[in-house]
Amino acid sequence: MTSPHAPVLLDEVIEALDPKPGDVMIDATFGAGGYTRAILARGAAVVGLDRDPTVRAHADKVAADFPGRFELKQTPFSGLSAAFAETGHDRLDGAVFDIGVSSMQLDQAERGFSFMRDGPLDMRMSSEGESAADIVNSWDHGPLAHILKLYGEERQSGRVATAILRRRVERPFTRTLDLAEVVEKALGGRRGAPIHPATRTFQALRIAVNDELGELTAGLEAAEATLAPGGRLAVVTFHSLEDRIVKAFLTERTGNTPGGSRHAPLQIETRAPSFTLMFKGAREAGEAERAGNPRARSARLRAAVRTEAPAWGRMAA
């Protein structure tokens, strides 16, 4: 089976995880199994996580190709610890997260993720909960404008929200291209813009529908609580909103949180670092990968190793 989704920064992720025979690792975004197959090829066992029920066919193929060393758990990031406990493994040696929507989800018009293909306005990575259509057809102006600005970084969020509310009085939104057209008109058309005017709105709705940022935070905390000492964490992000969360988490957990000024020093409780950075900053894809895979152009990898210190728990607000 040819994978419909090329894993980004694959070589760098495998180098960071360094899987070996006898290791047990979690691929927290199984998808089409790209990272999983590479880890399994190195002799380790993998527990795949994914809340998208459509990945089952890929999981079955991986399980058949690597009997006894792979299993899939249908759960979001926040269920990582519980899912791993169910497997019976007593040690987690590594975890990889690939954040955001996958190319195969974008390619499936019936999922409603893309404004480039007409489909139901859904955007749910699982089959449960509030859809994008539910949000645009029922939310008040203030909350709708807020998520467009916060999650989509849409500077004209109020204008877009106003246009959506005005149009839904006539008839509710049900299709992706219908919403994209309304947003495009609200923003005055493309006028040579490098990205489609609806890009930020669709991103904001997708993040809100799936609570992506909340799940990312919960997943990082779950990985911290579950990884064994010496276990490795690798996180690939594609957007500044996601990367900021990962950077803040690792900055805090490695004990590198900046203190106050000499005039008003912050009183911060000293805690033993639960991670050590594997390398400073973030790694990006090389020119060849960026040229061959558009998703790689914005990808950033951060990685760290779990220490023996207790987990810190919830991130600081």
UniProtKB/TrEMBL annotation:
> What GO molecular functions are on record for this protein?
rRNA (cytosine-N4-)-methyltransferase activity
Q: Which InterPro entries match?
A: RsmH, SAM-dep_MeTrfase_MraW_recog, SAM-dependent_MTases_sf
Q: Where is the signal peptide?
A: none
Main enzyme class: transferase
- Biological process according to GO: rRNA base methylation
Protein name (database record): Ribosomal RNA small subunit methyltransferase H
UniProtKB keywords: Cytoplasm, Methyltransferase, rRNA processing, S-adenosyl-L-methionine, Transferase
